[in-house]
Amino acid sequence: MVNYAPLHLRVTTPKIELVGATDDLLESLEPIVRAGKALAEPAPYDDPMSLYEKDPEIRVQKWLQSVWRGRGIVTNDFWRLNLIVMLDNKPVGMQDVIGDHFHTYGTVATFSWLSSDERKRGIGVEMRQAALHLAFDGLDATEVTSEAFIDNLGSNGVSHRLGYQENGVAWATRRGEPGLMQRWWLAREDWLPNRRSDIEIHGLADTRKVLFK
User: Fold this and answer.
1) Exposed, middle or buried, 9 (CB in 10 Å: 0-12/13-18/19+)?
2) Bridge partners of 186?
3) What is the sign of the dihedral through the CA atoms of 115, 166, 96 and 137?
């Protein structure tokens, strides 16, 4: 495996692992993307989004390109950790942790998707808790944000359950059609009382060296 620290990053919980998105793991995850199992109804993502591509071949190509592009953009104010969700040693989705104006504000945003085969089992909550642990405990974030279309009950439910505060709404498009997105915000001091003791981070020190040059 390429000796690039973020690819060796792992966040482990009793249920799942988040691991750096190596090309080998992306290849293992590709059948889920090709089959359209990263989608849901109502449409969950704002434009532009490679996962909306109708042609499976183009969908996979653009999805891979977006992950590779994210690897290559690392600045003081923006970086993106692409992490693959492992359940029983099998890749089932992605959980991204994104430094958005991090050097200035300490803000982290999250983005995720989970295979339709694994939904409604509490995995989405576990993914987000692992991401929060990485952001706050591992990267010293001051706040974490998330957003989802108003009718995305799953994502909004996770945010509410984990103590996020509603932070206004904004218009966005999905598949070219307008829709309202609910914004969410969680401060470090509100997360700390609920900090879990059973989540571990591996490969953190070397990853920090890459992100915080």
Assistant:
1) buried
2) 144
3) negative
Domain assignment present for residue 148? The answer is no
pTM: 0.96
pLDDT digits (tens, 9 = 90+) for 108-126: 999 999 999 999 899 999 9
- Name the residue with tokens 């997360």: 191
Q: What is the DSSP letter of 39?
A: -
Residues 1, 10: Cα–Cα separation, whole Å: 15
How many domains does the structure of the chain reveal?
Answer: 1
Question: Domain range holding 57?
Answer: 5-141+191-211
- Tell me the one-letter amino acid at 199: I
Is-contact 129 18, C-beta < 8 A? Answer: no
The CATH number of residue 112's host domain is 3.40.630.30
Q: How far is CA 98 from CA 5, 119, 197, in A?
A: 16, 23, 23
Q: Report how far residue 208's alpha carbon sits from residue 29's, in angstroms, rounded to the nearest whole number.
A: 26
Instruction: Provide the 8-state DSSP code for 138.
Output: I
Quote the CA–CA distance of 173 and 162 in Å, as a whole number.
Answer: 26
Rounded to the nearest 5°, which phi and psi values hold at 156? Answer: -65, -35
* 12: in domain: yes
Q: Quote the tokens at residue 119.
A: 């939904």
Q: Binning pLDDT at 50, 70 and 90, where does residue 1 land?
A: low
